[in-house]
Amino acid sequence: MRNRGMDPDEDEYEEYEDDEAEVDEEEEDRGASSRKRRRSGFIDDDAEEVDEDEEEEEDEEDDFDDRGGRKRQYKRMAASNFFDEEAQVDSDEEEEEEEAEDDFIVDEGADLPEEDGGRRMHSRRMLPHDQEDHEDLEAMARSIQERYGRRATDYDEEATDVEQQALLPSVRDPKLWMVKCAIGREREAAVCLMQKYIDKGSELQIRSAIALDHLKNFIYVEADKEAHVREACKGLRNIYAQKITLVPIREMTDVLSVESKAIDLSRDTWVRMKIGTYKGDLAKVVDVDNVRQRVTVKLIPRIDLQALANKLEGREVVKKKAFVPPPRFMNVDEARELHIRVEHRRDPMTGERFETIGGMMFKDGFLYKTVSIKSISAQNIKPTFDELEKFRKPGENGDGDVASLSTLFANRKKGHFMKGDAVIVIKGDLKNLKGWVEKVDEDNVHIRPEIKDLPKTLAVNERELCKYFEPGNHVKVVSGTQEGATGMVVKVEQHVLIILSDTTKEHMRVFADDVVESSEVTIGVTRIGDYELHDLVLLDNLSFGVIIRVESEAFQVLKGVPDRPEVALVKLREIKCKIEKKISVQDRFKNTVSTKDVVRIVEGPCKGKQGPVEHIYRGVLFIYDRHHLEHAGFICSKAQSCVVVGGSRTNGDRNGDGYSRFPSLRTPPRIPQSPRRFSRGGGPPMDSGGRHRGGRGHDGLAGQTVKIRQGPYKGYRGRVIELKGTSVRVELESQMKVVTVDRNHISDNVAVTPYRDSSRYGMGSETPMHPSRTPLHPYMTPMRDPGATPIHDGMRTPMRDRAWNPYTPMSPPRDNWEDGNPGSWGTSPQYQPGSPPSRPYEAPTPGAGWANTPGGNYSEAGTPRENSAYANAPSPYLPSTPGGQPMTPNSASYLPGTPGGQPMTPGTGGLDLMSPVIGGDSEGPWFMPDILVNVRRAGEDSVVGVIREVLPDGSCRVVLGTSGSGDTITALPSEMEAVVPRKSDKIKIMGGTLRGATGKLIGVDGTDGIVKVDDTLDVKILDLVILAKLAQS
Amino acid sequence: MFFHIVLERNMQLHPRFFGRNLRDNLVSKLMKDVEGTCSGRHGFVVAVTGIENIGKGLIRDGTGFVTFPVKYQCVVFRPFKGEILEAVVTMVNKMGFFAEAGPVQIFVSNHLIPDDMEFQSGDMPNYTTSDGSVKIQKDSEVRLKIIGTRVDATEIFCIGTIKDDFLGVINDPTTI
C-alpha cells in the first residue's frame, strides 16, 4: 500500500511547495536580481532542515514517516551537480524502484514530476558551502554518503497505526482482480499493461497492474470493474483473461503487504548471525545502513591469532574447516606479540577509534563487522544470560543495557504481565515507580502505582515495564536455561535476579522477566531423554560421570576423575548410555563397598567427607554428601581412598574381613565349641540347598518378591529367580512355575518381610545341592518362600557367608555355584580359588565347612535389607548360626527325587511354621556384654567370666569370675561359650528380634527355653542357644 | 517467633496401651509424635506444655485402634519475614553461610553479607572484614534478619541477611 502511504508525504511536499510558492512570489516581486539572494536563502533553509533532522535523530523517538525521510535523503543525495555521477546512481536506483510502482498509480503519478522538480531544486540549492573544503570530489562524495547515507536508518519505516487504518481499502475504492497469465511472464505481463497504458492513455480504465515476485501464474490488476480489466487484457498474449477473480477487500492489503522483512533493526538490537564462522553467535547492532542493506554488528571475535599471524606473514595456512575458534575478546597486545600489525584508525563518521587488523575492526576487544542484513536474524532473539554477561564485560554497568533490555522485552510472550504482578517502570518519567498490574491491554499495562498521590491507575507501555521482585520472594523460573527451577530471590540487580535455588542451594542469575512468583518447590527439569538427574552415564570419550544438573539442552556431568572435581557440560548426543551396573568394590581396608553404603573419604581434597555411595564404576565411587554444596552434593573419589563407615550394609562383609585379618580365627577350632548349634538342625548343612535360588542374579532384584504388572501373568506375585538382560525369571507364588517376564512389567515394591533379602544368603548355602535336583524342586514349597517365612532367612543368613566363603575349604557347592552364575563371582576374586580337596568335607562335617567361612566378601551383600538383618549383630564373627543349620537336616535325603518333600523335613518344616519371633531367634547368638561365658583356652581349664565389652573384631573383653571381679582378659569368640542358663536364671537374649533384651528363664522345654521378657513381660519360647546367663550385677 | 497455642490432634492408640496408664501413654505418644514436627501454618512444635482436653475415644473398625481427639498446648516456633533472629553458624562456603536458630535453617547469601566482608577459604572457611576485626565462621553466633521463608512439609528454610544495621556477629567463638 505504498501508494496510500504516500499521502502524508504529499502533505509535506505541499508544504514545501508552499514554501517554494512563497519564494516564487517573492521572486516575482523582486525580479531576477534577487536570484542570488534567493539561493542563499534556500541554503539557509536547508541548513536549518539539517539541524532539525539532527535533532530528530538524537531524539530517538523516530516515529517518522520513512517516506519523508527517504525523500529528504534524496534531496541530499542528489544534492549537488558536482557529484552527479554518484548521486545519480543512487537516485536512479531509488527512482526506478519508485517508478515501478508509481507509474501505475495514475492519480498520484501525475504529481510526481512536480515533486521531482521540487527535489531537484532543493538539491541545487543545496550546493553546500563546505564544497570549498573538499578538493577531491570523490572524497567529498564519500563523506556525504557516509554522513547522510547512514541517517536514513533513523527513520522508521512504518506509518502510525491510525494512518494505516485510514488507508485501508473500502468498498468505494477500486478493486483488485487476479488475472491468470503465463508462468514466468508475470512481470512481462505487467510491463505490457504499462506499455499499453502509455500507448492508449486514458482509454484503459485500469488503475494499476501488479506482478509479485513470489506469486507465479497470476498478476493483479486494479480496476473498478471486471470489464475494465478484460478490456485492458484484450490482445495481450501473456494474459489469459478468461478467468478473473476478485480479491476480497479484506485480503487486498495482504496482496501488497510486504512480508515484514524490514524488521526494526535499530541500534542496540540483539541479533544472531546466520552464516559463517559466527553462525549462531549473538551480536549487537551498532549501525544500520538501510540503503545498502548492511548492518554493522558488534561480535565477540572468534579469531585464531596464530592462524591470522601466519596468514598475514604469508606463511602457509592450513585450512581446518571444522575448527571454529572459540569466542574470545581480542587482545591487541597479544596480537602484537605475534607480530600482527595493528593499526589505529578513527572512524571518519563516528570519530570512534578502532584497532584495525587485516581489515577487521576491533574496539574494546569486540569485533565490528559489517554484514548484509540478510545474514543476520533479528527475530525471536533471546540472548541467554551468559551471552549478555559477556557482552557487558568491559566495565559497563547495568545501566548501559537499558537499550538491550528493550530487545529482550520485544521478545516477550503475549500475556507476559498478569494482574497482580509487581512491576517497576524502567524507562521514562516514571522510572523506578513500582506498582501492581491492574489490567493489560494490547501494549499498555495499567498499573496501580505504589505511591499514593498518583492517580489510581496509570497506563504504561509494556516495554517500559519490568517485573519486580524483592529479596525473599520465592519464585519459579519459567523460561531460559534454568526453566522450571525454583528458588528464593537473594538479590535484585535491576532486571537481573540472583536466586538461591531450592534444590542445589546454588545461586542462579536470571532475568526478572523469566520468573514468576510461586510457592511451589521444584527441582526444575530433571530429565532429558533417558537420562535423569543423578544418573551415572558413559560419555563419548569413554569417560563417565554423574549428571549433577539438567539444563534445558545439556547436562552438567561431574566426571569420574577422582581427586579433582571436573564438571563437563554435555549434550544429549554426547552421552553414550546410562550405567546401571550394580557392582561393588573394595575400600581401603578391603571391605566391600556397594551402592548405598556409607563411606568416609580418608584421602584427597575431599578428605573427611562422608556419605552414601550412589554409584560405583571402575573403582571410582560417587558419594553423595548432603553437606557438600558443590556439584549437587556429589563427590567423586577412588574407592581406595574411602572407608566404609557405619556398617549397616556391610556388617556381613566385615565379618569376613575380620576373619581374614585374624587368620587364627579361620581355623576350625571353633567347631567343637558349637555343637549345640547343630544340635537343633541336626542334619548336614548343605541340604537346604537349592531352595532359594533366587539370589543368584547379581542384581538387587534377584530374590525379591515382585508383582507382575503387565502381560499374561499380570497380578501374579512371585520371587525373582534370575535376571537376564531385560527380562526376569519369576517364580510364581501361586502356580509353582517359573515364568519369564519383561523387567519393565514387574513392580518390585511389593511389601515383603524385613528379612526378605536375606533369603538370598540362604540360597547361597543351598546351591550346592541344587544342581543335582530337579529344577522344580526348589520352588515346590511355596510356604517356604522367603516372603512368607522370614524365619528362614534369619536363620540362614549367616550360613550363607560361611558356605560361600572363599576360605572355606569345602567348595563343592561353591563350584556349582560358580558355574551357575560366574558373574556374581567375578567381583569377588577370593571365591575363585575353588578347592576341590574340600569336597570331602562337604557332607560329613558341615560344621567345618562353615565354621571358617569368614570371608564373607559377598559381592551381593549390598542390598540394604539383608544388611539390616545383620545390623543388630554386633559381633559379626560369631561364627555359627544355630538356626542356619537346622534347616538342612533331612533335605539331603530328599535331594534325589522328591522336591516336594522338602517342606516336610522336620527341621525346616517346623521352623517355617514357627512364629516369626522364634524364627528371628536363630539369627545368631552373638556375644553381648554382661553375659556369663565359659572361657576355654588351650591348655587351660575353662573359666567363667563376664563379657564387659565386645570389640569390633569380634573378640571380647572378659572379666573373670562370675560376678566380674577377677582379671580382665581378651578372648576370641572361638574360645568362649555362653553359659547355658538354668531355670529361673536371669538371662539375656543374644539373637533374634529380642536381641539384647533381658528376661527370666521360667522353663526349659527340650532345646527351647521359656522366657519371660523383662520389658514387656511377654512370655516367649526361644531357642536355648541364643539365651545366655546374665551376670549378676 | 514463639507462640504458645492450642492445637488439636487425633491420636491413634494401640489397644495394648489401654489400662490405667492410658492417659500417660497417650500423652507420651503425643509428645513423641508431635514435638519436633513442622507445619507450614504454625511452624515447629517445640514442646508440648500441657493437655487441654482429651475427647472420647472412638474404636476404629477392624483394627482395634482407638482414636482420641487431643487438644494440647504447645510452644511453636515460626520464623517470619523481617524477623530478627540470633543463630549459630553451621557452615560457611563461598556462596554464603548457613546458620541455625533452633530447628530452623537459615541461609545467608554472600550477596546479603556486607560488602566489606570477604570469603576466605581454607581449613576453616570464613567471612572476614578487610581489617580482620570481624570474622564469621562455623560456630559463630550472628544476629540476622529473615528476608524470606520457604515452608515445606517437614522443614522451614529461611534466607537471611546481615547487611543491615545492628546485624552481624554477636559472639565469636575464637575470642572466648
TrEMBL record, chain A:
Any single GO BP term: transcription elongation by RNA polymerase II
Q: Which Gene3D superfamilies match?
A: 2.30.30.30, NusG, N-terminal domain
Compositional bias (Polar residues) at which positions? 824-833
Residues covered by the KOW domain? 264-291, 416-443, 468-495, 592-619, 699-726, 980-1007
Record-annotated NusG-like N-terminal domain positions = 173-259
Record region (Disordered): 1-121, 653-703, 757-777, 794-907
**Biased composition, class Acidic residues, residue ranges:** 8-29, 43-65, 83-115
> Known PANTHER family for this protein?
SUPPRESSOR OF TY 5, TRANSCRIPTION ELONGATION FACTOR SPT5
What does this protein do, in the record's words? May regulate transcription elongation by RNA polymerase II. May enhance transcriptional pausing at sites proximal to the promoter, which may in turn facilitate the assembly of an elongation competent RNA polymerase II complex.
**Family per similarity comment:** Belongs to the SPT5 family.
Please state what the protein is called.
Answer: Transcription elongation factor SPT5
Query: Which lineage ranks, top first, belong to the organism behind this chain?
Result: Eukaryota, Viridiplantae, Streptophyta, Embryophyta, Tracheophyta
From TrEMBL, chain B:
Specify whether Transcription regulation is a keyword of the entry: no
Q: Which Pfam family name is an example for this entry?
A: SHS2_Rpb7-N
Q: Which GO terms describe its cellular component?
A: P-body; RNA polymerase II, core complex
Report the leader peptide range: none
Q: Which GO terms describe its molecular function?
A: single-stranded DNA binding; single-stranded RNA binding; translation initiation factor binding
* Tree of life domain: Eukaryota
InterPro entries the record matches: NA-bd_OB-fold, RNA_pol_Rpb7-like_N_sf, Rpb7-like, Rpb7-like_N, S1_domain
Task: Tell me the ranges covered by the RNA polymerase Rpb7-like N-terminal domain, including all copies.
Answer: 8-64
Keywords annotated in UniProt:
DNA-directed RNA polymerase, Nucleus, Transcription
Compartments, as annotated in UniProt: Nucleus
UniProt record, GO biological process:
positive regulation of nuclear-transcribed mRNA poly(A) tail shortening; positive regulation of translational initiation; transcription initiation at RNA polymerase II promoter
Keyword Nucleus assigned to the entry: answer is: yes
Question: Where does this chain mainly localize?
Answer: nucleus
User: Residue limits of the S1 motif domain?
Assistant: 79-156
Protein role:
DNA-dependent RNA polymerase which catalyzes the transcription of DNA into RNA using the four ribonucleoside triphosphates as substrates.
Q: What family name appears in the similarity comment?
A: Belongs to the eukaryotic RPB7/RPC8 RNA polymerase subunit family.
What is the protein's given name? DNA-directed RNA polymerase subunit
Q: What species was this sequence derived from?
A: Senna tora
